[in-house]
Input
Amino acid sequence: MSFDMNIWIDRLVEHEGMVLMPYKCPLGKLTIGVGRNLEDNPLNAEEKRALGDYMRGITINGAKMLLRNDIKRAYGEAKKLFKGFDELNYDRKYALVDMCFQLGYKGVAKFRNMRKAIEAKDFEKAHKACLCSLYAKQTPKRAERIAEVIRTGVWK
Output
């Protein structure tokens, strides 16, 4: 993995926000930190040890530890889902990792047309496919930003 973890942490915090107390996300899932869905992505033994009684809240450092682990997971998922992932530029890689972070492997796997377009390096088509989705309807500002990064290869 060749990326600046701190930059990707900042970008995801911008998209997700950071909440140090457990809360229910819009889908009703127990969540903490920077969008960590505890029901679908439970804490591992190491995370439990580091966080202690997380139901009473976590620290900023604890939230960032979870986020680093989630970024690594999402990076691995993006590599599996997108042929030629390693050849993409830095910001396009980030955009796909951001999608895997938010939607999970199964969610991004459904973007068949977008995935084919990215593999063909047709970023205009991938941009359009990204925006013609439930993802774009549910989180329009984020989806527009991510689709634009896919199209241009530049984070703004």
